[in-house]
Design a protein that fits this description.
Layout lengths: L9 H4 L19 E7 L3 E6 L12 E5 L4 H10 L4 E3 L14 E6 L4 E6 L9 H10 L3 H7 L4 E3 L22 H10 L3 E2 L5 E3 L2 E2 L1 E7 L3 H17 L2 E7 L11 E6 L10 H4 L20 H10 L5 H17 L3 E7 L1 E6 L2 E2 L21 E2 L3
Parallel strand pairs: 11-12
Antiparallel strand pairs: 1-2, 2-3, 4-15, 5-15, 6-13, 6-14, 7-14, 8-9, 9-10, 16-17
Helix pairs in contact: 3-5, 8-9
Length: 368
Amino acid sequence: DTLSFGMLPKHILEGKDINSDEFNNKPVGTGAYKVTEWKKGEYIEFVANDKFYKGAPKTKNIFLKVLADANIRLLQLKSGEIDAALIDPSGVKSVEKSKTLKVLRFASADYRALMFNMNDELFKDKNVRKAINYAVDKSSFVNVLLHGYGFEAHNPIQTSWANSDDKELMFAYDPKKADELLKQSGWSKNKKGFYEKEGKILGFEILAFNTDPFRVSLAKALSSELVKFGIDAKAYGKPQTAFEISKVQSFVIGWGSPFDPDFHTYRIFGSFADVDKNENGWNYSHYSDENVDKALKSARSTQNMDERKKFYKEFLKAIHDNPPFVFMAYLDFPLVYNNEISGIKTRNLGHHGAGFLWNIHEWQKQVK
């Protein structure tokens, strides 16, 4: 995955704190544009790099404005203050008939899922985790929350060449199967309609960062689905500083990368990447499965693509048998832009829609 990061100059940064060094305020690279002014948290101004290896960019100056709120981005698109931005799918209808704006859909490798904390006694039983997977109707997330901008998720490498279309490795919506699994583990419904065992109600908390409205909505929708089924799941949106992901019962997580599948599997699902043991790991769920570990290590031990795909199928089999997440939806991103701009091309985007400016050197605005 190091190939997805830019190279850093050893002769400038060696022995320094790369997080605070002045070098970060004056970036130098080989891209299509050069930074001329940067006001952190507000904007960055760029000028074309005439020596760009793909040729001089078609647009001389670019002004990148920092607008975290999707509603503000939409308002400024409509007013003409900005020319292009990713918006929330809920805002697409309001611009579909615009005479000055166009909408372009970008697919992505970005998924949302419910992460189980394996240190929690409830989730040590894989039947419970499997039952929750079967109890969730994912189509409602795509059709209602995403307004059709996305598709159902079944695994973390679904948009990759390494994916398997084997339906046996997917959790279809099947409440009866979910009920059977819970009964196998000793759970039964009480008079109030909730599953109960030895006097304890089957329930847990779902956490999401309150700075991400979609994740909060997803947590609430998931809670509603599970309560309807008979699991007392409560959803909360809280500040990022209010809790640690690795210590809550469950969390609405997001991952995904358009690059090699190793990038977003090895450090997330490998037991060796548990954040309690490895500061460079991303395994916040404390998930551990020897078959997963074996498959992921084998997949990075060869360059033969057919062999690697075979190992990734073994990985998919393992996480289906012992699920770490409820994979809910992959996101598509609507880019709204001024119809005077030409040259925009789509590609599969990364996490949070990263990469939509990938061919900005070809963008051109012609005032009509």
